[in-house]
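One-letter codes give the sequence; backbone shape is given numerically. An example follows:

. . .
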Amino acid sequence: MRSLAREIDIPPTWLALHLGAAWVVSFVSPAVFADVGRVVGQGLVVLGALLMGAAVVQMSLARTTVIPRRSPSALVTSGLFSLSRNPIYLGDGLILTGAILWLDAVLALPLLFSFVWLIQTRFIRDEETRLTEAFGPEFDLWAAHTRRWVGRK
């Protein structure tokens, strides 16, 4: 039986904690972004949610898991995954960035670095090891051409 701590140690939990921290910091942060931050922030939140949704659909169509720490049944390398090896996590990052701008919480910007570091160390490295074990050279070729967060090499 899995422990509750392991069950809730998933990226959405960490995103929610970072969003909550950004909200708290917004009460003491000087106003910098104003209306521009609100508009751009809302756009980034929507873009992040759409990116995540599209990536989940693409993985579902490939009949592979979107849940971290589960074994993948397929390697998805086309569509969004040709531009980012982690479009769902990229979407999370866009949501957090958008929320910080929307909340006008300039002092919360370090949370972005905290979130990226946490996701890479707790989830992405493990997932990449699992993908290497499952798909070997096919994963290596994709990783050689597609950046972890965004862009082609």
